[in-house]
Amino acid sequence: MLHNFLFDICGLQGGFTLEKREQQCFDYIRRTVGREKLVLMLVSEAA
Fold first, then answer.
1. Global pTM exceeds 0.90
2. Computed over its alpha carbons, how large is the radius of gyration of the chain?
3. φ, ψ of residue 23 in degrees (nearest 5)
């Protein structure tokens, strides 16, 4: 039932990885800010 909701109704594709998400965030920041400006980014990793 959960699989049906997530994949059939919501249209998720199931290819999520942390590496992909990280790259998507970097790409979004580059598009939004541009390459000429500097961005300070702090990242915390949960243990």
1. no
2. 16
3. -65, -40
Q: Which two tokens stand for residue 11?
A: 């249209």
> Whole-angstrom Cα distance, residue 17 to residue 4?
21
The whole-angstrom separation of Cα 27 and Cα 21 is 10
Buried b vs exposed e over 15-39: b needs ≥16 C-beta within 10 Å? eeeeeeeeeeeeeeeeeeeeeeeee
For residue range 15-42, what is the model confidence (pLDDT) as tens digits?
888 888 889 998 999 999 998 899 988 8
What are the percentages of helix, strand and coil residues in the chain, rounded to 5? 50, 0, 50
Domain range list for the chain: 2-33
